[in-house]
Amino acid sequence: MDALTGESGTNWRNLALAATLISGLALTGCQTSPTAGFANIDPAQGSSENISSLTSVINSDPRNPESYNVRGSAYGRAGKYRDALKDFNTAIQLNPNYYQAYSNRALIQRGLGDQQAALADYNRAIQINPNYDAAYIGRGNLYRKAGRTMDAFNDFQKAIQLDTTDPRAYHNRGLIYQSQGQHKLAIEDFSTAISLAPDAAEPYNGRGLSYLALNQEDNAFADFNTAIRLDKKSAEAWANQALVYERRGDKARAAKSYAEALHLNPKYQPAKDGLARTRTS
């Protein structure tokens, strides 16, 4: 989803921003906006009250790079990317070896559409700290969206070899396995992601699709239903549930679920196509 973090062992860890798990397959392919990268953290951390409090901290100690890094994270959660970028720039100016700030700034660069700047920042973070798992995961997401699948796989693999507890590494490696038809390996990775983030809907969507590819329809249906329970606004989950209904010949329920998916995301093509197939006159 790339974590925006403060330095480990500090009082600011609870302000870390985690990036959303990114889906990329035909049916589950979430079309995320930049703000989705900050979706799985308490929105209050991006509130004006919290930002005001962090500004007071900075005013009392304007040479502390960590304070800028934390406020930049809060700005990022609030969708104020230009303000976040300024704070991460200041943090890096104060501490040129602040690898967390480079990785955090990379996420903002991605949100602003500057993929080359994001890549440069991830590379710099890894150069400073070759064991920083969050930077590998962030760079892997960048590579995967650019179609550099093997480079992405290698970065997710590296993060996992570093014993990361970040579910995104497993989820995104699972997506790559899935795209290659290696569904058993994909299911293992999605299951690990679920164990690390049981309240995230996306790994259930991913695992459900691999179960479906292996004709384990009941397992797939259970996963899609869980994804809906966790995120009722997931158009992908509703469309996936509808697909199972459609496979079972229940066009009425399928059409209802496809319609809900389309209500949530009017541009979601799998829902449009599914509703056209199942809607009765």
UniProtKB/TrEMBL annotation:
Keyword Hydrolase on entry: no
Listed GO MF terms: transferase activity
Full protein name: GlcNAc transferase
Superkingdom of origin organism: Bacteria
Alphabetic keyword roster: Repeat, TPR repeat, Transferase
Any matching Pfam family: TPR_2
Gene3D superfamilies tied to this protein: Tetratricopeptide repeat domain
TPR-type repeats, residues: 65-98, 99-132, 133-166, 167-200, 201-234, 235-268
